[in-house]
Amino acid sequence: MKRKTVLAAALVGVVLSLGPGPTALAHPPIHERFGVEEFSFVIDEELCGFEVLVEIRQRFHLTLFVDEDGNVTGGHTTGQLFVWLTNLESGRTIRRVIPGPSFLDADGALVRGTGPWAFIFTVDGEVINAWGHITFDDSGLVISVRGRTEPFCGVLA
Are the C-beta atoms of 55 and 93 separated by less than 8 Å? Predict the structure, then answer.
């Protein structure tokens, strides 16, 4: 038993003598909180065959991760995003709660998202609402969804 204790202590000593690992040298993440913002816009009838009023209320938190040189390596957003979508012809309204998170690359571009999303464009030119794990290309277009999707316009018709 004594031999195992000495061996364990020696291993801990070797590990500690190697110095801090790469994460110990990195800068702490940058945290930014954004207060409540509300805005709206109208999508013209070319997209769905009817105008859609989009009302958004959001409050979110941005975290950026940086390396030992202070360069951003990626990040994510979390928070509250409420979206009301109204077919201005029929008056039908749906509400979506989009809590995220969203994951960003080193340039701040959207890479992945989880949970429910509304009014997102696919690389095939479709507009969808989605639930699950969503992957985006460099332009912010949906490449894939592991989960469920529905046509954006169809749910409002």
Answer: no
